[in-house]
Amino acid sequence: MKTRHCLLDDSLAWLRLRNALWPDDPADNESGIAAYFAGNALACDQVIVAETDDGVVVGFIELSIRNYAEGSDNPRVPYVEGWLVDEPLRGQGVGRLLMQSAEAWAREQGFSELASDTEIDNENSIAAHNTLGFDEVGRTVNFLKSL
After folding, report:
1. Residue 49 and residue 3: Cα distance in Å, rounded?
2. Helices (H), 1-145
3. CB 3.0 to 4.6 Å from 50: which of 27, 59, 91, 122, for a disulfide?
4. HSE of 21 in the Cβ direction (CA atoms, 13 Å)?
5. What is the pLDDT along the chain (147 residues), one digit of tens a residue?
6. What share of the chain is helix, strand, coil (3-state, %, to 5)?
7. Beta 2-5 vs 46-51: how paired, if at all?
8. Number of Cβ atoms within 10 Å of the Cβ of 17
9. Which residues contact 78 (CB under 8 A, 6 or more apart)?
């Protein structure tokens, strides 16, 4: 298993994984990938994929640089926007490998922190973040009202 930067040839695999993570809007997932490769993605500065020895993409991590992250005093913070490993491979270190690659990328960019979030009831993701050394800095419930 290895990680590497996502390539245009990975688009279909990345789309499959994005649709698994965010199933509510496949069209948005597809347009986000197109925007990334066109160089104008709004919330995605780097994508790293996990690949088996025979070249099958089985996971990804999307990173952005945000102007704010809860718990950080820095004005710019790399942020994990999405992180997923195919279900049959979970618990085998693939997610850890992706996160380590994300950390390395953030350090290469000159950052000293990496931020992330998850749904408040996603116990598996919370446990994974804790296992990988993240500190929980708060819990929120977000609201939006159409006017």
Report:
1. 5
2. 11-21, 26-38, 94-108, 123-131
3. 59
4. 23
5. 999 999 999 999 999 999 999 999 999 999 999 999 999 998 899 999 999 999 999 999 999 999 988 889 999 999 999 999 999 999 999 999 999 999 999 999 999 999 999 999 999 999 999 999 999 998 887 777 778
6. 35, 20, 45
7. antiparallel
8. 24
9. 45, 63, 64, 65, 66, 102, 105, 106, 109, 111, 113, 114, 115
Locus of tokens 């925007």: 35
Chain Cα centroid distance, residue 121: 18
Sheet holding 2-5, edge to edge: 2-5, 46-51, 57-66, 77-85
Is residue 3 packed enough to be buried (19+ CB in 10 Å), middle (13-18) or exposed (0-12)? buried
Which are the contacts of 62, defined by CB distance < 8 A and separation ≥ 6?
44, 46, 47, 80, 81, 82, 83
Q: How many residues does the chain have?
A: 147
Q: What does the alpha-carbon distance between residue 61 and residue 93 come to, in Å, rounded to a whole number?
A: 14
In order of start, what are the domains of the chain with their CATH numbers? 2-131 (3.40.630.30)
For residue 107, what are its two tokens? 């350090």
